[in-house]
Design goal:
Number of helices of chain B: 0
Structural class of chain B: mainly beta
Largest interface: A-B, 25 and 25 residues
Helix content of chain A: under 10%
Helix content of chain B: under 10%
Shape of chain B: globular
Largest sheet of chain A: 7 strands, mixed
Low-confidence stretches of chain B: none
Order of helices and strands of chain B: EEEEEEEEEEEE
Number of strands of chain B: 12
Strand content of chain B: over 45%
Largest sheet of chain B: 6 strands, mixed
Shape of chain A: globular
Oligomer: heterodimer
Number of helices of chain A: 0
């Protein structure tokens, strides 16, 4: 199947700094990518939908100025956590769908574990 | 609005016995439904999907699920559990109204005992 690569797999940063997470579709083009957040022992919560060449669509309650999303090409989306605080510590997962239509399979990155100290 | 309810947060079965993980959904539009599995410290893997074709869907590793519109259910089953099946399972719904985003259930943790 298609591959989505997410980098880094884990990162530790100091409070107040910014962290960038990359999500790449390696063998297909993804006009839309999705960013999720997963707390320990909980489900994935959709944060935002990243559209190539346009602004991301954020879910209710997600601060767009804190979680900056850039989708500059058909194979790359980035999530930047700005001015990170300990409560931002979480597991972040990106996803991309191969092709259009809601029935197509979504492929997931391996996730990024962010720890803010 | 679409939503998914996984009826059991934890399920425990003995190796070799059947597995049943329950999922109910709500959607105002024709939904697509998926089951994903997440093993510890690993990414999500698609087990199977329903996209308005056959209502009985067969997936990988012997799993299958049946779409029942009248019951708004999409339960996941396997005839005989294996130790390697122990993982977190997510029922997921997507429809055209969601912009193709996936809406995850809270997950069911499957424990398989010897």
């Amino acid at each position: 199947g298609a591959v989505v690569s997410q980098h880094p797999s884990w990162v530790i940063c100091k409070s107040g700094t910014s962290v960038k997470i990359e999500c790449r579709s390696l063998d297909f083009q993804a006009t839309t990518m999705f960013w999720y957040r997963q707390f320990p022992k909980q489900s994935l919560m959709l944060m935002a939908t990243s559209n190539e060449g346009s602004k991301a669509t954020y879910e209710q309650g997600v601060e767009k100025d804190k979680f900056l999303i850039n989708h500059a090409s058909l194979t790359l989306s980035t999530l930047t956590v700005t001015s990170a605080h300990p409560e931002d510590s979480s597991f972040y997962i990106c996803s991309a769908r191969e092709g259009a239509g809601w029935g197509t399979e979504a492929f997931f990155g391996q996730g990024t574990r962010l720890t803010v100290v | 609005a679409q939503s998914v309810t996984q009826l059991d947060s934890h399920v425990s079965v003995s190796e070799g016995t059947p597995v049943l993980l329950r999922c109910n959904y709500s959607s105002s539009y024709s939904p697509s439904l998926f089951w994903y599995v997440q093993h510890p410290n690993k990414g999500l893997q698609l087990l199977l999907k329903y996209t308005s074709a056959a209502t009985l869907v067969k997936g990988i590793n012997g799993f299958e699920a049946e779409f029942k519109k009248s019951e708004t259910s999409f339960h996941l089953t396997k005839p005989s559990a294996h130790m390697s099946d122990a993982a977190e399972y997510f029922c997921v719904v997507s429809d055209s109204n969601s912009g193709y985003a996936l809406n995850f259930g809270k997950g069911t943790s499957l424990l398989v005992t010897p």
